[in-house]
Amino acid sequence: MHGSGIPIWFFIGVLLVAYGAMIFGYGVYEWHTGIYPPLVQLTNLHTPVWWGGLLEALGVFYVVKFRPGRDGK
After folding, report:
1. Can you give the residue ranges of every domain in the chain?
2. pLDDT tens digits, residue range 49-69?
3. CA 41 to CA 23: how far, in whole Å?
C-alpha cells in the first residue's frame, strides 16, 4: 500500500519476535533462579516461558509469510 512494498504484518511479526524473546528469556531466568513474585498462583506452569514461546512462534510465522520481496512484490 502507498508504494512501500513492505506489509505492516512483517513489522508486527518482528515486534512479536522481539517481545516473545524478552518474555521467554525472563521466564527462563525466573524458572532457573526460582524467584517468583509473592502470592502468585500456579507458578509451576511457568507461564512466561509458554507465552514467550507462543509469541515467538507467531512472530516467526508472520515474518516468513510477509517478508519483503516475496513473490516479486
Report:
1. 8-33+43-67
2. 999 999 999 999 999 999 988
3. 18
